[in-house]
Amino acid sequence: QEAGCLSIIVLGASGDLAKKKTFPALFHIFQQGFLQENDVHIFGYARTKLSDDDLRERIRGYLGKVVSTENAEVLSKFLQLIKYVSGSYDSEEGFQLLDMQVSEHETSKNSQPGTSRRLFYLALPPSVYPSVCKMIRRHCMNQSDLGGWTRIVVEKPFGKDLESAEDLSAQLGKLFDEKQLYRIDHYLGKELVQNLLVLRFANRFFMPLWNRDNIDNIQIVFREDFGTEGRGGYFDEYGIIRDIIQNHLLQVLCLVAMEKPVSLKPEHIRDEKVKVLQSVLPIKPEEVVLGQYEGYKDDPTVSDSSNTPTFATAVLRIHNERWEGVPFILKAGKALNSRKAEIRVQFKDVPGDIFKSKKQGRNEFVIRLQPSEAMYMKLTVKKPGLQMSTIQSELDLSYGLRYQDVKIPEAYERLILDTIRGDQQHFVRRDELRVAWEIFTPLLHSIDDGQLKPISYEPGSRGPAEADELLAKAGYVQTHGY
Ligand code: BG6
C-alpha cells in the first residue's frame, strides 16, 4: 500500500517555539526535498484569529531574515503549503473544523482512506497537552489501518517532578499508545550526540578504555552566556535542573555510559538507556552546588524571593560494573562567561610514569557538541626540538575544517524527519522519562522546600567558585595546553 498524503499540524502556531524552531525546521527539510510539495500540507492551529496569509507573513517575517535571496522562491512555495485554523485548545468545534480542513486536503490529494499520515506537533505549554490530545483523539484521528498513521510530538517540560510527570504520562497514555508519542529532547538531534553511539561502538580505540579502570571522571557541561531573557516567568517555575540537566544532560549521560545495545533498533537502544538510568544512585546534597546569577530577580516576572537555581553542578554516580567509582559531573548554567556544551572524559594518570608528565595534565577526550562541533584528544607528546621533555597537545577533529561541504542539520530538522519516518530512536520513552524524574525529584523537592539554596554569582563569570571546588573534589584535574 502506497503511503497517503502527509498533513503536518502545528498546534500553537502563533507562538514562539513554532516561530523559532518548528516552522524553520519544516522549511529547511522542505528546501532539502524531504517534503514533497504535491503531497504535503501544513496546518497551523492556535487561538489567535489570523488568516492563512497572516500566518504566512508572520513566518516569512521571521524566516525571511535567515533565508538567502536565492531561496526566496522556495520560501514562497513553502508558505503556500501553510493553512491556518483558529480555535481554542479545548474546543470541540475548533478541532472538528481542523479535521475538516485536513480531510479536505487528503481528499484533494486522492489519499485512499486509511493511508493518510497526520503529524500533530504540540508547540504548546504542557498544561494543555491533555485537553489537546483528547480533542485530537476525539475528532482528528486518522483511520490508521492501511498504513496511515497519527503521531503526536510533544516537548518538555513533561511535568515538574516524578508525580506530575507520571500523571501527564498516564493521561496521554490513555489516549495514544507509546508508538504514537514522540517526546522530543532536542539534544538527541544534535550531530555530535548522535555520533556518540558510533564513536563508542564502532571504534576499537575506545571500547577497552571506556570503563572505571581507565577513566577517572566524566563531565557533561552546558553553559550559556545569556540569562533568562524574556523567559523569566517560565524559567522561575522550573530552574536549570528541570530546564537542562534532568533532560538534555541526562540524555547525553545515557549515551556516554550505556552498554552496547543488541542492535540499532530504537527499542534496543532505549532499553540500554533505561538500564543505565536505573543504576544511578541517589544524588547526595553535598555533591551539589547551586547558583543564581546576580540580577536574575530584577526580571519583573521572577519572584523577589525566588530560590530558583540558574546554575547547578551535580555529581551522579552509576552503580554498575563499568562505572562504580567514576563521578559523572553534570554542570549547567545561564549567564556564564561562554556558550558551550561539551563532554569531557578525563582518564586516570599513567601508572609508573617515567616522564613526570602528570604535572602537565592527564589524557582527556573532549567532545564539543556546540558551538563549532569537534572532538579532540588531549595527550602528552615529546616537545618538538632537541630537548627530551613533554608537552600537552591535541589530536583534533574539527567538523568545520574536516567536513567543510556539509551543513550540519539543526536538531529539530532531524527529529521532525524522524517522526515522519516513524523512527523513535531519538525520542524519550515513557519509562526512560520516569527514571529520569526519579533521579532528580528528591533534589528538586529539597530546592523547592528551600532546604538547598543557590549561591549568588556574577553574570559573565564561571559560576560559583564552590562548583570548581566540587569538581576538584570529584577528581577532576585541570589540564593546561601548550
Ligand atoms: C532549551 C532550554 O531546552 O534548550 C533553554 O529550555 C536553552 O533554556 C536551550 O537555552 C538550549 O538549547 P541549545 O540547542 O541552544 O543548546
Question: What's the gist of this structure?
Answer:
The chain is α/β, with parallel strands linked by helices and 482 residues long. The protein contains 13 helices and 15 strands. Helix 8 packs across helix 9, helix 8 packs across helix 12 and helix 9 runs parallel beside helix 12.
Describe this structure in words.
The protein is α/β, with parallel strands linked by helices. It is 36% helix and 21% strand. The protein has 13 helices and 15 strands. The protein has a 9-stranded mixed sheet, sandwiched between helices. A 6-stranded parallel sheet has the order 3-2-1-4-5-6, sandwiched between helices. A hairpin with a 7-residue loop joins strand 13 (374-382) and strand 14. The model has no long low-confidence stretch (mean pLDDT 93). The structure holds 6-O-phosphono-beta-D-glucopyranose. The site of 6-O-phosphono-beta-D-glucopyranose has 4 residues, from loops.
